[in-house]
Amino acid sequence: MYGIRNCDSVRKARKLLDESKVDYTFHDYKKDGADENALNEACERFGWESVLNKRGTTWRKLDDETKAGVSDQGSAIALMMQETSLIKRPLITGGKQLLLGFDAALWGEIMEKGEL
Prior knowledge:
The chain is mainly alpha-helical and about 120 residues long. The protein has one domain: Glutaredoxin (3-Layer(aba) Sandwich), CATH 3.40.30.10. It has helices spanning about 10-20, 30, 35-45, 50, 55-60, 65-70, 75-80, 105-110, and strands at about 1-5, 25-30, 90, 100. The strands form two sheets. Strands 1-2 form a two-stranded parallel sheet. It has a two-stranded antiparallel sheet with strand order 3-4. Strand 3 (about 90) and strand 4 form a beta hairpin. Helix 3 (about 35-45) crosses helix 7 (about 75-80). The mean pLDDT is about 95. It holds the Pfam family ArsC.
């Protein structure tokens, strides 16, 4: 699981996984930086527009020139590598499912099927 330790969505996701006794490794973007391969995989699966979080404070604080420079997957990943708070989270990789964002109902269904 990739995310930021103090993010509300990440905390909810980790709590659910811990309560469900699901083993996972946590990669904290703030301590460990972003993983370019994981970002590429997420962008290929979900589209870079979904992986790049434009709804948060970090995006709103960027200058207009920086925002305008994000026009494709490569430029989005480059910016997310610099500003890890721009990555939608949590991101789950390595299991049977690739998941982006936290949806308790969906995650519950996936865990019931043993696909996480």
